[in-house]
Write the structure tokens for this entry.
Amino acid sequence: MLFKAVTVETDDKNLLNQVFKLRHTVFVNEQGVPPELERDEFDKSAYHAAVIQNGEVIAAGRLVIKGVSGKIGRMAVKKEWRGKGIGSLILQKLLQIGKEKKITCFYLHAQLQAVPFYRKHGFAPVGEIFEEAGILHQEMTLEPMILRQH
Ligand SMILES: CC(C)(COP(=O)(O)OP(=O)(O)OC[C@H]1O[C@@H](n2cnc3c(N)ncnc32)[C@H](O)[C@@H]1OP(=O)(O)O)[C@@H](O)C(=O)NCCC(=O)NCCS
């Protein structure tokens, strides 16, 4: 099956709501993150990417830009679609968006179980493990060498 990650246009409220619905399913229902933490003020200004299959959002992620830094976050793939390269497509799309916006430093807070996933994409751990929303996380940044290849 061929999948494609798209940018969610800010005025496409229907698509954006589907993105939020998927995130709620994954982070709140599946992982127990409090809903008031899952949605935040950065959603408004963030760039969102999604993969759509038969009219349904099956994966999403966002990029929050601050100056020349871009924070990747809220990476979520619907459970039955994981392990098929779809999360990777979302990540690549967000990196592409960031590069177009002249971002030179990409970073993220990875849940510990997702560290190998981000490593595969050239992110390396920085600093100590910490807790966020009741889940252990590791900050990671994209190696500059990898950034040049994207
Ligand atoms: C993490 C997540 C976004 C990855 O998306 P995905 O579509 O499953 O990942 P992909 O299929 O693109 O994986 C690419 C590679 O990373 C590896 N990988 C993915 N998730 C992994 C995990 N949890 N642990 C170890 N390796 C993982 C895969 O083995 C794959 O490697 P391969 O190409 O050599 O087989 C997805 O599993 C998910 O939504 N998880 C639940 C929510 C979550 O934890 N989000 C991350 C918060 S930081």
